[in-house]
Amino acid sequence: AQTVTQSQPEMSVQEAETVTLSCTYDTSESDYYLFWYKQPPSRQMILVIRQEAYKQQNATENRFSVNFQKAAKSFSLKISDSQLGDAAMYFCAYRRGQGAQKLVFGQGTRLTINP
Amino acid sequence: EAQVTQNPRYLITVTGKKLTVTCSQNMNHEYMSWYRQDPGLGLRQIYYSMNVEVTDKGDVPEGYKVSRKEKRNFPLILESPSPNQTSLYFCASSLRVYFPYGYTFGSGTRLTVV
């Protein structure tokens, strides 16, 4: 079974600094997708960024970028120029390509932004 | 506005009293799913539905029931709730089960069983 591990239960960063959240996953599949979701205090699950496993280029979305290391099965999220609104729980998630019936989530990392 | 609507947002109930959490989407999505979120465990899938009248168990289905009589609705039923079902519940949907994008989530239901 696929598993996703986020080894950092909590992280903190100074406003305007850069922070990296770690995620590793275990799979024997070659076709899959990886996601980072943000959950602010409102509880809404917001898709931050996604990565297709077949793409070598790392995905970027404005201040958010990923470091996708397929061989190492690592998928870290980098947030640049951290803002107070980035404070949230962040979840890494995996989805198999074909035949997938679910997202597999990591345990989550709570990110605090210090002003 | 395209969205997944869950109700209620908060619910406190007593052990054994049947309850239903509703979920409705207005995007004509085929795939719908229920997750529960617990501290230190992330989100785990309870049930999912690939289309109308097609449902199947996820990773933690014990104590839950679902139905999919209409494409837009996917209610979660707890026939006899117990305290270990106290959790944050999310409904999610996707255009198709193999759709390469992430899911659209509802805003969550905080359930407390006393």
Class from secondary-structure proportions of chain A: mainly beta
Question: How would you characterize the largest beta sheet of chain A?
Answer: 6 strands, mixed
Q: What is the helix/strand order of chain A?
A: EEEEEEEEEEEE
Label the overall shape of chain A: globular
Distance between the termini of chain A: 41 Å
Helix coverage percent of chain A: under 10%
Q: Using only CA atoms, what is the Rg of chain A?
A: 14 Å
Low-confidence stretches of chain B: none
* Total strands of chain A: 12
Q: What is the global morphology of chain B?
A: globular
Radius of gyration of chain B: 13 Å
Arithmetic mean of pLDDT of chain A: 94
**Beta-strand content bin of chain A:** over 45%
Tally of strands of chain B = 11
Q: Average pLDDT across residues of chain B? A: 94
**Low-confidence spans of chain A:** none
Describe this structure as you would to a colleague.
The complex is a heterodimer of chains A (115) and B (114). Chain A is mainly beta and 115 residues long. Chain A has strands spanning 3-5, 10-14, 19-21, 24-26, 32-39, 46-52, 60-61, 64-69, 74-79, 88-96, 104-105, 109-114. Chain B has 114 residues and is an all-beta fold. In chain B, the strands form 2 sheets. In chain B, strands 2, 4, 5, 6, 9, 10 and 11 form a 7-stranded mixed beta sheet that branches. Chain B has a 4-stranded antiparallel beta sheet with strand order 1-3-8-7, with no helix packed on it. Chain B is globular.
